[in-house]
Amino acid sequence: MPKRVDHDERRRTIAEALWRIASTRGLESASLRDVAAEAGMSLGQLQHYFRSRGEMLVFALEHINQYAGARVRKRITAAGDAPGPRTVLGEIVAELLPMDDNSRNGIMVQLAYFILAVHDERMRHYAKEGTPALVSLLAEQIRLGIERGEVATDRDPGAEAILLLSLTDGLGNYVLLDVFTPAEAMRLATAHLDRLFTP
């Protein structure tokens, strides 16, 4: 009886092979042949799932976004029943910073996509699509903080969300460059949140 192939699992294997290449050598090194070799399969097997490099890149980007979202949800759930907006934002920030090997590799992959998206309109579309959703999630928590009297009423939730995301992105980049340690970056982000959550 022929072995049954889990096609979703095979696609995830390909995406994760692509991430490993992107996090160590950049996306420009991620040809179909290189990714197939990294995934332990033939080029023909890979092309059964992705006919072009572009298709593979888009799938892997969507998959890493889903993976990152799942990690954020897991952190928030672990924070206990009905955590407050300050706690939720702290958990999101902790997930967005390169605090461990997993998150570091994820951020390296996202940076590789960012560099590609600067010059590739199709990738730019996908890269831009996720940012408003994240800003909206952050803004909703800040808005809730205002309603609960934990954030000053003159704060603009949308602007504060963009500033928080920009701060986190910048700190993450400096951690990757060894300018700050992960703990230092988290301390600075926490100090910013503490100031924000001072009514």
CATH architecture verdict: Orthogonal Bundle
Q: Indicate how many domains the architecture comprises.
A: 1
Largest sheet: none
Unreliable stretches covering 5 or more consecutive residues: none
First-residue to last-residue Cα separation: 67 Å
Principal-axes shape call:
elongated
Radius of gyration: 19 Å
DSSP strand (E) fraction?
under 5%
Q: Secondary-structure element order, as H and E?
A: HHHHHHHHH
* Broad structural category: mainly alpha
Q: How is the CATH topology named?
A: Tetracycline Repressor, domain 2
Q: Number of helix segments?
A: 9
What is the residue-averaged pLDDT? 89
Assigned CATH class: Mainly Alpha
Number of strands: 0
Question: How would you describe the overall organization of this protein?
Answer:
The protein is mainly alpha-helical and 199 residues long. It has one domain (53-196): Tetracycline Repressor, domain 2, CATH 1.10.357. Helix content is 77%, strand content 0%. It has helices spanning 7-25, 32-39, 43-49, 53-78, 85-96, 101-119, 121-147, 157-176, 182-196. The longest helix is centred in the C-terminal third of the chain and has 27 residues, at 121-147. The N and C termini lie far apart (67 Å).
Question: Which helices and strands appear, and what pairs or packs with what?
Answer:
Elements: H1 7-25, H2 32-39, H3 43-49, H4 53-78, H5 85-96, H6 101-119, H7 121-147, H8 157-176, H9 182-196
Helix pairs in contact: 1-2, 1-4, 1-6, 2-3, 4-5, 4-7, 5-7, 5-9, 6-7, 7-8, 8-9
